[in-house]
Amino acid sequence: MTDAPRSRLALLLEAVLGVGTDLDPRGTLLRLVDGAAELTGAAHAWLSTTGPEPDLLTGIGSPAAPPGVPDTPHHLRVPIHVEGEEFGALHLAGRAGGGPFTAADEQLLRFLAAQAGIAIANARLYGTARQRERWIEGAAAVTTALLTGDAAGDALTTVAERARRLADAAAGVVLQPTGEGGMVIVAVSAPDDPGGPAGAAIPPGSPVLERLFAGEPVFVEDAATDPRMTTPVRHRFGPSMMLPLRAGGRLIGTLALPRRRGDRPYTGVERALAVQFASQAAVALVLADARRGRERLAVYEDRDRIARDLHDLVVQRLFATGLMLESTQRRTGAGEVEELVDRAVDDLRSTVREVRAAILALQRHPPSPHAGEHPAAPARGPAPAATVRDRVLRETAAAAARLGFAPSTRFTGAVDSRVPDPVADRLLAALRRALAAACRRPGVGRVEVAVDATAALPDGRDAVRLTVRDDGEGGEGGGTTVTWECAV
């Protein structure tokens, strides 16, 4: 008579230990069902929940008996309370022997259910702590990436990608305000949807925008049916969050995290963590933009200094040397000396032109980033188009990496004003072909590029002439000369 109670006690202790040692909520509930069935000898046991627990478990049954459970009058229901609220209930049916469940059975199950409630509460706390830890680590990683990275255009994509992963969303999207009062998508992370919502816009006057411009987040249960959602891609998505990227009292953008239709809704914890992430990301974006602004200013100042030094020292010295050689040339009559002086004067003139071209390139600031590349950037006008000189120097600089040395570049005449864009495009294509051929040619140790905007065609029309010379093997006289010209 004493073996049975002792056996049930051992089973109860084993069930309690099994329930209380698992931090996975679903594993806790499955152990609870198995332990209850074994403890009471029930033929059937199942669990029902009173409310959705999308962050804890899926596929838990309803209060009705699952398929395969016979209709029996002997049924026992024991509620499970978590933090003072009914989480669900444990159901038993069909006790061995066909008899009813006893009061002792119910008492044991209530004790087991109480322990399960504590275990589920602990699992919830653990899951929330892990979530919070992941979001904090994600925010720190984004801040580090933005403050140490070099590519300003990747900043928004970095934010969108990290937020998408943390939120388990179908897409991470960053929008920026437009001049008309709407918002347009400027960065997207959607690996499962390459087309994605890129380029979609929210028109001015949308109720969602009123909330966002006021600095308030917007949470949507189903983007496809919510009347506030007006983007053309809303039908693809279900639960969504739209979080203002706000820093210093200024809205610099919006972070949107939509899930697919039918996916679980966002919990309160996820919403709170996402709002904190957006606030930290906005500050990091502003700080990163300020850092890049300081770096650009330092580069501009350095370029101006180099240009001044070149002009004040190198150009003046070369010019003075050229004048002295010209004076010497006029005084001497020896043919050999005169020839040497002529060559020296020509070389000095060529050097002066190249240095002046370098000065112009240094003083001409590089094009500003597009206004949509970074939310913290102040509003600007359209970026200045690259000139013909810029484009030629860019091509020669690119070829320098393959050649192992920088080609010599000379400009004659008002290249930027006399060469129209269509002709410049053709000139650049010819330059690329000539430089590519020089890179492939063996023995090349020097490349000279000359662009002459004062040339003329045989019929007398004004023209621009491109000449590319190299000293490589395979050409006549130990070198190759490529000439291209076109009317302007």
From TrEMBL:
Signal peptide: none annotated. It comes from Streptomyces cyaneogriseus subsp. noncyanogenus. Residues 374-386 have a biased composition (Low complexity). The lineage of its organism: Bacteria, Bacillati, Actinomycetota, Actinomycetes, Kitasatosporales. The keyword Secreted does not apply. This is Histidine kinase. InterPro entries: GAF (IPR003018), GAF-like_dom_sf (IPR029016), HATPase_C_sf (IPR036890), Sensor_HK_TwoCompSys (IPR050482), Sig_transdc_His_kin_sub3_dim/P (IPR011712). SUPFAM superfamilies: GAF domain-like. It holds the Pfam family GAF_2. GO terms for molecular function: phosphorelay sensor kinase activity; protein dimerization activity. Keywords: Kinase, Transferase, Two-component regulatory system.
